[in-house]
Amino acid sequence: MNLFDYTIPEKNEEFDLLLEHESLSIVRIVSSDNFESKKYVQDEDEWILVIEGEATLLLNKEEKVLKKGDSLLIPAKAPHQVTKMTKGTVWLVIHIF
């Protein structure tokens, strides 16, 4: 799989599992700017990297603006929610179990 071979969805996001091994998984997410904002609370740590685009998210009620090249560690059990994204935002997400 080529990391940059994707189609931007018209609505919501597309998730592609790139690797799953022992205590981690790596997922590519391609996002539309037309999406339903959901609150997440996950059992695992999550490290996110914005490869393309820009997004705003709330992490523990604090707003974070992430641009191309920015990364963020979301600790397990931390409430988080994406509130804004530019069309074509691409994320690399590593879940650490």
In CATH terms, what is the architecture? Sandwich
Low-pLDDT ranges: none
How many beta-strand elements?
9
CATH superfamily: Jelly Rolls
**What number of structural domains do the residues give?**
1
First-to-last CA distance: 24 Å
Helix-strand pattern: EEEEEEEEE
Largest sheet: 5 strands, antiparallel
CATH topology: Jelly Rolls
Strand content: over 45%
**Biggest sheet: strand arrangement:** 1-2-9-4-7
What is the helical fraction, as a range of percent? under 10%
Mean pLDDT: 97
Task: Describe the structure in your own words.
This protein has 97 residues and is mostly beta strands. Helix content is 0%, strand content 59%. It is built from no helices and nine strands. The protein has strands at residues 13-21, 24-31, 39-40, 45-52, 54-59, 62-67, 71-74, 80-85, 89-96. It has a five-stranded antiparallel sheet with strand order 1-2-9-4-7, with no helix packed on it. Strands 3-8-5-6 form a four-stranded antiparallel sheet, with no helix packed on it. A hairpin with a 2-residue loop joins strand 5 (54-59) and strand 6 (62-67). The radius of gyration is 13 Å and the shape is globular.
Give a topology summary.
Blueprint: E1 13-21, E2 24-31, E3 39-40, E4 45-52, E5 54-59, E6 62-67, E7 71-74, E8 80-85, E9 89-96
Antiparallel strand pairs: 1-2, 2-9, 3-8, 4-7, 4-9, 5-6, 5-8
Structure at a glance:
This protein is an all-beta fold and 97 residues long. It has no helices and 9 strands.
